[in-house]
Automatic annotation (TrEMBL):
InterPro entries in the cross-refs: FN3_dom (IPR003961), FN3_sf (IPR036116), Ig-like_fold (IPR013783)
Domain of life: Eukaryota
Protein name per Swiss-Prot or TrEMBL: Fibronectin type III domain containing 7, related sequence 3
Length: 93
């Protein structure tokens, strides 16, 4: 999940937190105004907030952005229905 935000006045660095619905959290620090979360779990709702810091203080949290992470479909199968020239593909929810 790629997250970005506008620069905030006085900020030297930012901390983005992705808090998952299962209690899993991922943290990313950057002096730039973007972060890439590459370790999120699938099938969860994440709430993403960003705080800004200078060398002494941290700001309050930004308003949260919510995102849900879909899982890769499993058990993909394909079969022919010869009677009507149709191919049928199905997968698990
Ligand atoms: C991000 O910065 C915070 C505060 O300085 C620190 O506690 C945390 O360990 C850092 N996390 C990462 C992933 O660098
Ligand atoms: C994520 O949020 C949606 C909408 O609020 C909800 O229907 C769904 O059950 C949630 N999923 C999880 C894994 O909590
Ligand atoms: C072909 O037959 C299958 C199985 O009866 C059916 O599910 C499918 O909708 C049919 N396809 C068309 C194009 O009529």
């Amino acid at each position: 999940v790629a997250v970005s935000w506008e620069p905030s006045k006085g900020a030297l660095s930012y901390t983005a937190v992705a808090q998952g619905s299962g209690g899993y959290a991922s943290v990313c620090n950057n002096s730039d105004t973007a972060c890439l979360f590459s370790d999120l779990l699938c099938g969860l709702n994440y709430s993403i907030t960003v705080t800004a810091s200078d060398d002494r203080c941290s700001s309050a949290e930004s308003s949260a952005v919510k995102i849900s992470t879909p899982c890769v479909p499993q058990k993909v199968t394909a079969k022919m229905v010869c009677s009507n020239d149709t191919g049928v593909v199905s997968w698990e929810e």
